[in-house]
Amino acid sequence: MDSKRVFITGGASGLGLALAKCFADAGYWVCIGDVNDSRGAEALAELQAKTTAHYCNCDVTQESALQAAADWLLSEWGGVDVVVNNAGVASAGGITEFPLSDWEWIVDINVLGVVRGCKVFAKLMQAQGSGHLVNVASLAGLISPPKMASYCATKAAVVAISEVLTLELDPDNIAVSVVCPSFFRTNLAESVRASDADSQAATQRLVNKAKLSADEIASRVFASIEKREFYILPHPEGRKIWRLKRWLPFPRFRAMMLKQTNRMMSKRDARK
Fold first, then answer.
1. 151 catalytic, yes or no?
2. Is 131 left (phi over 0), alpha (psi -120 to 50) or beta?
3. CB 175: neighbour CB atoms within 10 A?
4. Do 87 and 64 touch, CB atoms closer than 8 A?
5. Spatial CA neighbour of 126 closest among 174, 166, 82, 176
6. Over the chain, what is the mean pLDDT?
7. Are the CB atoms for 131 and 84 separated by under 8 Å?
8. Among the options 28, 55, 151, 231, which is catalytic?
9. Which among 66, 103, 111, 260 has most CB atoms closer than 10 A?
């Protein structure tokens, strides 16, 4: 087969759809999975104007749904070259306020959704002798702003899983990448569960104030995927702060983060 094949979870909107369009423009056959069928139909029509494309309903909390997608790709397209575990949700709130039920909700999607995708598609890629798993985490998985413990924990887990798999799957000729963007303009805020109105509003402001769109982030991420880079940090400021965390003694980094946090809290209080 001349055309490469990609499967993207959460591919009907946001970064998932933006990435799907990048792959389509590069000549890939594109299969997107999502739980929103109406958005899926709209995204499919857009993608079919560019390339061979397919949509399937895919709930990443169900391993059977991911297995069904893998089975379809194998039977109809003969396999898959790249899988992007992109589906995810957001959360905000303090450790004492954020309910355990919402912890379970975000872990099931953000962590176990990636685990299920890697489990199902690594087996397919092992059988075909090659592949590339791309796991979408966040800059929040590398640095840890306050009032985001549940979100940061899930994205840090995705980074750790990816670091394990890049070693574990290397003998099988399977590449692994982990994507760690900062905030960008997308519909992620639609999925936010927040423990209080202030946390909800703060998350929405960060998304709205972001300088880059999903399309701009996707273009940078796609270029890095094609190069098979492992850590993909599309925001220059994100790369800078991650380097500071790695290189500075933690007390200095903590002081820097506390200063930034206090500045943000002061601005929030001034808006009240």
1. yes
2. left
3. 19
4. no
5. 174
6. 90
7. no
8. 151
9. 66
